[in-house]
Every structure is written in structure tokens, then in C-alpha cells.
Design brief:
It is a single chain. The termini are far apart. Helix 1 runs antiparallel to helix 3 and helix 3 crosses helix 5. The chain is built from 5 helices and 3 strands; from the N terminus they run βαββαααα. The protein has 2 domains: 87 residues, no CATH class; 54 residues. It is α+β, with helices and mostly antiparallel strands and 153 residues long.
Length: 153
């Protein structure tokens, strides 16, 4: 087995990305990469009959490390190779409705967690939807407006 990594990116190709060197980079980039990875797994499922997986990797940069979602694949496995190059050639240009919702939900969770740690909010005042720290299971093929109606933020 010959393992290769192919960089896909930190976010969809036409979306704004967290900027290396900014004070909020670590938190923002991790959130973006996690949501992008979930979106890719949803939109481009990993084939069961090939060795490939999506990972978040850090890389050195002059202003610190930066993160990207990469596909890890076996360079001797035709199914894995097809998946990796297919994903690279068909990287989404924009966040889908679920990813857009997840980005906002995770940012709000982060704000609530900071407020609890700072003693500004009691843990019992955190809305129920955020207490577990787990993203809600969201239905596919719905618009962002429909997600907001069914799962208010």
C-alpha cells in the first residue's frame, strides 16, 4: 500500500476562508475544515470498496500553521485514485444548506461555551439544542430557510 495525500482545501472553492495569522484563526479554521469535511463526506461519499478517507491536516506557513481537508488514499488502488481525483476535480464551489447551518450552529456553540466559562451565562441558561455539543441530525435536500424553520438557531 502506498499512501498519498491530496489537498482539497479548507472550504469550498468560492467561499471565504479563515486567514492565517489572525487571532481567531485556529478556532475558525478548525470549524470550517470540520464542516467542509462533513459536507464532502455527504456530497461525495467515500467508496466502500476502496481505501480512501478524508482528514484534516495542518501545514507550516510563515505566519503559523494552516489547515486543509485532504483525501488520504492508496495510490495502488484504482477505486481510491478515482475517488481522490474525482473529488479534486469536483470540489464544491459553495457551502450547501446543511454546511451553512452547521457553521452558524458551531459558532453559536463556541460563543455560548465562552460565556459559560467566563461566568456570564449559567450552564442551565444554555438552550437545550446546544447542551450536548452535538450538531442536530439535519435532513438532506432542504433549503437553508427550511432548516431554520425546523431547527431554529
Amino acid at each position: 500500500m502506498t499512501i498519498r495525500f491530496m489537498n482539497i482545501g479548507p472550504v469550498p472553492t468560492d467561499e471565504s476562508v479563515a486567514q492565517v495569522g489572525r487571532p481567531d484563526y485556529d478556532e475558525q479554521s478548525l470549524r470550517q475544515c470540520q464542516v467542509f469535511k462533513r459536507m464532502l463526506e455527504r456530497c461525495h461519499p467515500i467508496p466502500a470498496d476502496g481505501f480512501a478517507t478524508l482528514v484534516i491536516k495542518s501545514f507550516p506557513h510563515d505566519f503559523g500553521s494552516y489547515r486543509e481537508v485532504c483525501v488520504c488514499y492508496d495510490a495502488n488502488d484504482p477505486v481510491a485514485i478515482d475517488y481522490a481525483f474525482g473529488l479534486e476535480n469536483n470540489t464544491p464551489a459553495a457551502w450547501d444548506a446543511i454546511a451553512h447551518y452547521e457553521l452558524i450552529w458551531l459558532e453559536r456553540l463556541s460563543v455560548l461555551n465562552r460565556a459559560v466559562r467566563a461566568g456570564e451565562v449559567s450552564p442551565t441558561d444554555v438552550p437545550e439544542a446546544y447542551r450536548s455539543g452535538q450538531l442536530p441530525e439535519l435532513p438532506a435536500d432542504v433549503t437553508f430557510s427550511e432548516l431554520l424553520a425546523a431547527f431554529p438557531l
